[in-house]
Amino acid sequence: KADEVVAVLETDKVSVEVYTPHAGVLKEYAVNVDDTVEVGAAVCVIDTDAVATVAEPAPTTNAAAVVPVAATPVPPAPPKTTAPAPPVVVQQQQQQPAPVYAARAADPFLTGTGATYADAMYEAWSRDPSSVHASWAAYFATGAFDTPDARPVMSSSSQGGADTLRALHLISAYQRRGHERADVDPLKQLTARYDGDVLEDLDPATYGFDMATEAERPLQLASTSSAVAGLLGSADVNLDGDTTLRELVDFLRATYCGTVGVETEHITDLHKLNWLRSRIEVPLAPLERDERLHVLERLAFSEKFEAVLATKFNTAKRFGLEGVESMIPGMKVMVDAATVLGVTDVIVGMPHRGRLNVLCNVVRKPVEVIFREFAGTLRSPAAAHEGEDHDWSSSGDVKYHLGTSFDRAYPDGRRVHIEVLPNPSHLEAVDPLVVGKARARMDMKGDVVGTSVLPCLVHGDAAFAGQGVVYETMQMVDLDAYKCGGAIHVICNNQVGFTANPDQGRSTMYASDLGKAFGCPIFHVNADDPEAVCRVFELAVAWRQEFHTDVVIDLIGYRKYGHNEIDEPTFTQPMMYQAVNKQKNVLDKYVEHCAATHPVIPVDESRAVVDHAVKTFNDAYDRREECDWDRDIWGQHWASIKSPREVGRGAYGKTGVDVATLKKVGKALTTLPEGFAVHRRLKARLDQFNQAMADEDHVPWALAEQLAFGTLLLEGIPVRFTGQDVERGTFTHRHAVVHDQKTGAKHTFLNAIDPTQSAHLYIKNSFLSEYGVLGFELGYSMETPNVLVIWEAQFGDFVNGAQIIIDQFLSSGEAKWMRQSGLVLLLPHGYQGQGPEHSSCRIERFLQCADEDPDVIPAGLDTLEGQTRQVQLNNWQIVNPSTPANYFHCLRRQQHREFRKPLVVASTKALLRHKLAVSSLAEFDVGSRFRRTYGEMFPDEVLPEKDVRRVVFCSGKIYYELLEGRRHKAADSPNADTKSDVALVRVEQISPFPFDQIANYAKQYPAAELVWCQEEPKNMGAWYFVRDRIMTATRKLNDKEQRPGYVGRRTMASTAEGYGAVHDAEQKKIIDTALGTTLTAVPFGATH
To answer: Could you tell me the pTM of the whole model?
Structure first.
């Protein structure tokens, strides 16, 4: 019959059955068994005109040990024809197993991919002939197709092929779905959900095996392709050449359904799968006795740390690790294994649960200090004697949010620096900071792969599944600007999120399923099996060091108490906590296990280890007041940076740059590589830059920014700059990177200033993230003060996507954790009729978080030292510069102080190409510096100071609208000599507030009323911030309090109008009112 097997061909990669293309009589074979044949050679001759008189199985070669792993697809036979059939010939074989595609009814006959495909087409045709392609319908109508039920059963002579094929299906099923029946839940809740139901995919009967009759039968298994590792390459589980069905099934169950469940089916790289399977699908060797003792000791310290705290501080919240104590020995094995593989730095980010245990037992923070923190005493005894004058605003944080670091040495000379970053209660917020810090440390070490720095992120199960920043962080794994060689993700799985059950917290089977999107191997492991936990952590490290991608460990345990130790969990999880309360703790279980299994550790010996841990903690409690821990956790790069408790010098005298150096940078900014085909529209820009440098005047915004970066680079200070579209600039103004229009090659001007320059501009477009990317850059800036790190929002409005990073880390990190950062935020801001989402960077939110008292004027503001100290004691700086030169100095001073402060820039959009917003080169020269304010710049346009009626304070681009409005008003006057009675003053640095200069301006114009003018609505912008401070400045420094008036938009729910015409009308009204005569300085201002 057609479609019968007449021969089996084997290559070094695959085995293929050859089917008859036509019915007829087999006349002769052209080859013998074991012959080597060439492509194109005839195998046999079939007479299609003859009719067979005896129904016999088609003759085949001896295929008892042949495995049809993935035969080359053979299309179904075409309709019968009267023409004689050609000889069957050997087809060119594929070197890799062919893929199996799902049947699609619209596919034509010639694209069929094998018997399974043809069967699917036949079933569809049987239901509805019109549902398949016309070529299939025509073929099935001939009756030549043998239905699956009519095909002969494989003969006993091919038992080996059947065994191997069925075994392969069974092995593959366990690889794919074995984790669903793994014993990974100490509470057996997962087991209860399927209530003992047999998973059909894991049932040997599904593949034709009969465990009742065949369990002890040796399987006839043949080796498959050498390109496939593990059981799919060889199912000889005992390596003795003889595997029974029971041995295979038992091995699969032990490997994939034990206390470790493995998910790898989403990984598409065969090399990675082979690597994993060659380590997973092997007989499990028991630990050596000393290794088991090591696990026992680490587990004892983990469990007893929590027990001692629970005894000594039984009413305190500590967010203990009870229920997943085995995470500690796992993490310690992770560090040990990592150092063997070249890691010198481990950076950990984690939530509050288990943090104290990790700090004590993994990082080795003195437990005496932890005890003292529970008592609520000062961070160091010496601090008690410093007095209030020395206490800056380090308000501190609760003990389970703190971080620390430690240098650990091994007996063989290995050393590792372990650091845990401080983290707020905002779960997962620390994730991008960890990878950012890791990347910075890699860059400092010159490690481009990540071999030496290991980031480890510990998550809660509900948080890993629910917090979007986890996805944003994992998205960075292979992006040039953010990759750090992969992170180890540890899900500390309590199987509950505060009071929410898993079915309320996620739609996926596991909390870890996000890892599948990034090709991470996922290991589910029972937290009550410490040895399995340690093996998984060790394997995870090996994976990360081999492939430099993320890996996920789902450590499944439980939470012994409620969300914290004084919370009552049975309100919401009564059934779960019935199971929890019956649990014996993992340490007791492990002691029993060690006494009952090889290598045996007697109970008495184990108890001695446990007693030692208890004694260690009790002794530390007694010594808690004697231990002085004031450890520097900043790192070596911060050695020269002053804390707020020390007076740091400012950048005065350092931000100005000599003209020759400026012109050197300017030349690089206008020079292209030989033959570089720049975009035609950029040629005019290069000419403009050339002209500005030659004339030493009319320097525009973009050129000033590049001059700031370039001069820093020549001083050996690298610049890192990321954000959405930063290479070109959202507003097509920057063009720091240009593209050859013929080849696509890139050129970064500032990296070609001087062949010997040691520092470079690293500018990269970010992916579409604010939360994750800003967190990453903050983490990067916290690692080193010696790099100017900048993040730019596409529009300032979009910064609210990163509000958690701003509130929890950037504005308060130094106060809570004594961690400085010099991160710069560029937030495009300004009202130009572009609507509510493209106008405001919400500067009022930053000002509200500024740590300066509106009623207190810092001492010494009339000196540069006093001005610097004011900045040092504030939590950040908020500026709205209005000239390119001031922007230049603002950026450069970030790196020329002895301390670091975040800088928030309400950066301009409208002034990027404004004809008035230019600077002369003299304003960049040596001796120039950042100006906190600009007074009236055109006194010849204004009446004498004693006759000025109004001083309008403003900030940013509205100044130029006021200036042009004042000039238009003068031009419209019938008197050509008319001068304005309104002086304009710009406040460039809004926080820290320039009290002294504001008071001086008020004194300079003794008869003038003071007005604050802004574009933003009254309930937004700087109005409420500056109002009280203007009153304080005039009251305390001039002995005459002046209450400013207000000019700006009315209070609004939205930041701006949506209609251009309405915007224009509002903007005109603001300018007219500010320059008019109707407003008086009524108390606290008035709307126009």
So the answer is: 0.83
